[in-house]
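User: Second chain of the day. Same drill as before.
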Amino acid sequence: MCSPAMVMAAIRGEGQHVCSHHPAPATGDTTAASTATDTVTTGERPVQRGRVVRSATRPGSPRASSRPGPEAPGEPVRSGGATSRRGALRAALAGGLGVAGAGLVAGEASAAAAPTGRYNPIHRLPAMIARGRVRMKDLTHELHEDFPVFAAFVRAPEQVQVMFEDEVGFNTAEWTFNEHSGTHIDVPAHWQDGMPTVDEIRLEDLVAPLAVIRIADRAAEDNVTGVTVRDIRRWERRHGRLPERAFVAMDSGWAARVGSAEDFLNIDPVTGAARFPGFTPEAADFLVGERGVVGLGVDTPSLDIGADPDPQTHHILLTSGHYGLENMAALDQVPDSGATLMVGVPRLKGGFGAPVRAMALV
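Assistant: Same format as last time:
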């Protein structure tokens, strides 16, 4: 059987190829198989919705037998060959995939034909979330005044309430925080002048297949370990090649430390260096150059391994036009593969970073 992708491409008219198991009907063959959308009486028994119906008449009936085939001498060429071909392909795919396959094909066809603004598969998402068929997982820590920051570079967040409901009828507060506070985005301009700023990040890059690489067991023993190319290849042996334009996140178990600045930053009292996991430069280079990722994420304060005095991972990722998320939460509660990342980013004109709301659809 040919692949569903091949069949769907033919259905959409992207090519003339049909595999030997699913030959295209000749032009004008109106008896070609089609997918029933309602119960149809064939003269033998009802055919239920979604089944393949090859003829609306009893086999052997005068109407069925008297009609000449498309190869009969003198048969005129009729329009609609593409429609017939697509009908046969839909029927073939439905036969191979069952009723669900028929529904998939019908949905593909109707979505392609529907005018803009009418039914689209994305319209089903809110209902699927409401019914629990798609789960949402928040990958964002709460931002508050005690959130751990590198005090030498980042001012601690502050919140001051300036309007009060019992006085003026509503509440408002003023916040002061660094762009790189809490769960936040690093953008290319953070590392190199002239590169995209926060407001210039493409929306398409903020929705991506999410792949999570887990090194928590190793990080518990070695605080300055990192995601390696070997870890990536091990992930691919289990789950297949990373999807194109994926977002790859590291789950090191570090998010559990966020309640204690001392544990989260893990500053060595002798050297003064922070000690936490990150992506090795070799892994970052492989993911950017060989796998075409849109970005990388960590559950630690930095994309680079904390003790590394030369932040090469930042350089490789950001100067190549990609983005990173730092201080991510709950990566241990989403699957290794199959989830979709969505990132909400404020449009700070000229910003070098920003707090974000990151979430996974599972």
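The first helix runs from residue 4 to 11.

User: Great, on to the next one.
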